[in-house]
Amino acid sequence: MLSIDTIARVTLTTGRTSAPSAAYDTGLILVRLPSSAAASSSSSDASQDDYRLQTFESAEAAVAFLRSLSLAETSDPVQTVRKYFGATPAPSSLLLSCFPSAESPAEALAAVLARTPAFYGLCPGQEETPEALLALSAAVEAADHPMILFLPVTGTPAEAAAAGALPALLKAASRARAFPFYTGDLTDLGAVLGTAMGLTLSHPDSAFSLCYKPVAGIQPSDLTASEAAAFRALFCNAYLTRGYTHNLLELGTLSDGARYDERLYLDRIAADLQTAAVALLAENPDRLPQTDDASAQFINRFAAILLRYTAMGVLAPAAWRGPSAGPLSAGDTLENGFALWADPYDSQSEDDRAAHRAMPIHVALTLAGSLESVTIAINVQL
Question: How do residues 196-223 score in pLDDT, each as one tens digit?
């Protein structure tokens, strides 16, 4: 499969980037095979490609596959898979990639991407070294395919919040596609990944936030207020009990400070606009002239797409707070949460005209955001 980037290139700039994805509600679990399992599979009729990438629609089928590779029911990969499918709402599908013990997770991910882009969230299925996890995070960040890496953070709260620990290193690197999660059980990561994929599946026409969601199948971490605040400052997520009855995922944040759902919807918008641009070029019975009329056709098609995101609650009317750009000045109101424009073709360079390039279509977006706290003011007359 060849990329459509050479036809319609999308650049996405936020205050804190992206290309198309094929399945935003499907997770990928990377499973390092112990040498005994790899030997067992190679001695059977199955080839390496048989366990390198498989798609499953139930925990039973995925677990049976892992058990066929000599992985015990109590093993981390099997329990991670069970917790993934046990999420509420439940995801409908999972990709499993089993890779040899001599390979790194980053190399395993590259092998998956060479076969398919049909996933969005991913996580390791077993314990990996911090160095391997950082290398995997760097590979996710550098990939053309947009995805989010769910990473386990372990140890005592003090160890996990230390300057040289994984959350601090991810934050210092401003990793925009890393979702660190503090847990005492590595397999809990499967439940968090499954929850994120299940929420996407169950919200086709409305926006959701990952913040403060319950996560089925796992227990909250017993953190003090100061420990929870330290994790929050590091953009490290945790599953906590608030009050006596509220078990909540906090804060649904990536290591650059952006919310998971905001990154998800920006990835989806970028993919939809890119696909629409290619469709306009490929399906038009007539050629598109290098005139402002062609820009108008792109803008009209893009506007129809963005209006759907406004209806979903992803975009919302708001004052533009970014720098002045094109017709936009700071303080201008974007009535539907977006503005579209293109510079006139009279200003096109000779090189771009000779190369049959369209004038860039500029898109400004204002996100609806999501509420995460509220103040209740009570006035009492005695």
Answer: 999 999 999 999 999 999 999 999 999 9
